[in-house]
Every structure is written in C-alpha cells, then in structure tokens.
Amino acid sequence: MPKFYSAQQALDMILDHVNPCDSDGDDVVLQMSSDSEVSSDEETSLPPVKRGRVETHTGPVEKAKDGTVWCEEQVGRPFNQSPVEPYATDGEPTALVRRTVSSRLQSFLCFITLDMLRTVQEWTVQHGRRTSNCISSYNPGRHITIDEQLFPSKTRCCFLQYIATKPDKFGIKFWVACDLKSKYVCNVIPYLGKDPSRPSGERLSENVVMKLMEPFMDKGRTVTTDNFFTSLSLAQRLLNRKTTLLGTVNKIRRELPGSAKQAINRQEFSTQVFSTSGVTLTVYAPKRRKTVCILSSMHSVVETEDTRKKKPNTVTDYNSMKCGVDVMDQMVREYSVRSGTRRWPVAVFYNMIDMAALNAYVLYQACTGVQERRVDFLVELASELAQSHLGAKKVNKENLLRQQPPTPDQGKRATCQVNCRCKRNHATVRCVDCYRYTCGKCRKEVAWQCEVCSDNAGQNQ
Q1: pLDDT of residue 11
Q2: What is the pLDDT of residues 308-321, one digit of tens each?
Q3: Of 58, 92, 257, 298, which sits with the fewest C-beta atoms within 10 Å of its C-beta?
Q4: How far is CA 441 from the centre of its chain?
Q5: What global pTM score does this model have?
C-alpha cells in the first residue's frame, strides 16, 4: 500500500538528502494535507526566504484581580511605548505680573487685596474656594507635588480632622498642589467633608488630583503623589491629558499583580519591574521582608544604580520629588500669623495669609531679581501693609470729621478731640483745618487783622 506524505514532510526529506524511493519498495505518493493548501507553482518553487521576526514579549505575564495584565520586564530594557514630551521650562511669573510687580506689597496684593483684609470673615466664607489669583500669576515648572496639609486648629466645625500621625493631631485639612523647585502654592482645595458634586464611583483621591491639576494639563508636566492618591486608573487618566504620574502605590490595590505583593522570598536590594499600557510598576526591596511599589508613567526604562543598594531610577526620582508640599508647609509654619481663635473662618484666613506671603516672596524674587531672606521680606511686607492700612484709616477718619456739624446741637457740648493742654474738656467749635472739636486751652489764638492788611497779606503771598 503506498504511503502518503504532506508537502512539508516531503520537503523535509529532500532537505535531509533522503531518497523517498528507498522506503521498503513501496511507491511514494505526495498528497497535500487538508490544513495546508499549496498551489502547484509553490511546490516547484525554491524554499521561501526567512523574514525578520517582530520582537515580542517573552517574559512571564500576570493578571491582577481587577483584570489588568502585567508583563514582567528586564531591568535596563526600554519599553515599547511612546513617552510624553516633558515640560521644557522652569516655573516663572506670568508676563502681566512681571510688568506690574516691583515691590513687596504689590507681590502680596496679587493674592489678597486690602478690601479682603478689612472684611476677614466675609472674605473667608465667600472666597475661601477661589484660588484663581495663584493660578494666573505663576507658571509652575515641570514637576508638581500634590499632598495634604493639616493646619493646626481646634475650632468647632463639622470638617475638623484628626490625624494621629501628624505633629498637631487636630486641624483643618487642605489639598495642596505645589511647585517642586520654588515651593510656590499653585492650587489649594479645602476639605469640607463629602462633596456632593463628586461623581458616584469615582475615588476621592482621583477627584482631588484631577481638580488640582486641571489648569496645568496637556503640557507634559509630572505629578508626584503618595500612596493615598496613586492608582493605575489615575495614571491612565493623566496620561490621556499628556501628564505623567510618579508615586508610591498601596500594595492592597486590586490592580497590582499577585507577585508584587509578596515580600517574603525577595532578596535584599532586588528590583522587579512590570509594565502595562504605558505604565511601569517597580517593586524594590530596601530590606528583607519589605518592599516598596513605585508606579510611574514618566519612565520609559528602569535602570539600577551601580552602588551597594542598587536603587532603581524610579525610587531615586520619587525621593527627590516627593517633598514639595512638606517643605512648603514647614516654611509657612516657621513664620506664621496664626493666633488662638475658636472661629474656623479666622483659622482658614490665617492659613491663606501664610500661603499668600510665601507666594509673594517667590513672585517678588522672580520679578525683581532681588535676593533677600524671607524673614526680612516678611518684616518689610508687614511694614508696608501697616502703612497702607494706617493711611486709609486716617483718610476715612478725616472724611467722618468733615461730615460732622460745625457746632454741637443746641444745648449740648462736645468733648475736646485734641487733648494737647487739657484733660477731656468740653468744646463748642471745630478747627478749620482738621475739623476736630477744640477747647479753649488747646486752641491757638490768631492775631486780629483789619480787612486792608488781610488783603495786602493775601496779595503779597
């Protein structure tokens, strides 16, 4: 009975220099198999030339609980992703502010006007959420840090927070976006409890980051957050707006692979890298039985240092960019106008004054080029604020005096407002220059002149 061979088997026999006629005396019949249809022209043609093979991922693939597929990558190997073009310039004031700011007072008035200072509680309640002046006066650099700030206070309000890990346990919490290089406060949102405008199903951390970064999107900036804010969905949302993310991620997140959560069998100073949809996950073991997870969308390759600890570049970059809000909070607490109060609008206003003074210091140096200590700047700023306030108060007092009648009502006497030579004597006439009531002791008598001499004196002048 003749044997049947497929085209591929016959081709293999020919290449191996095997004579198909030497097969036990049976006739060899070449028959095409059903799964490979080759034409007669292809049977007689030469073997096909090998094509270049597209490089594909060969490492292990893991699937997280939420369905995210992570591919384990080699350390130092670039990933197949198109990086976001980074923001090119450092933080600087806007063109309008650079033209107008020439003194400390003008830099401070970019954020808080004198009318706001005179109406503390009303301004705080109505304008506490408005940070448009901070956004429009400064262009932050590439790196922006987002974190929480706890202003110490024990005022009675429904949104007072208690955080045991803070030095001051009680206070009012603010979400702050800060420029890394200059420590300029770019945007602030107070935490007032549950926000009814937040969409259902959206995490609070993602909502806060998207609100704070909304004016600075689509420019190639990088946001640095801690494990409260960082998540895979937030990184992908920011990546769609040409903004990258770098931050530590909590190991209880469902989107992390299972092997990234295990820390028992890891060697000290070992690094494991995963990638998915433009985002990398670095798992670094600084100690035995301890791991740190860094989620990044700004690194196209993860490399380790040539040192004993072998830190990856994602960890070193995070350590250098995570301190923006913490340093800002330390600076505003060093020189603060805070005072004891039981009214929460006044406490919030104190924090706004401290932040405005820090922003004014950054703007004044950037616009004028004058380098001075911050304490000297604050002293001069307080002096200019006091002078402007006293000048406005003096003008207001003179206007009130001019509105008073020239003499008291009939049967009444006013109190002397000069008190130069008397102790609260009664007066019935007012000064022709300052409009204050003056008694006889504090009044200066003018020499009597006739009409002719008075006219001649006026002509000589």
Answers
A1: 65
A2: 999 999 999 999 99
A3: 58
A4: 65
A5: 0.66
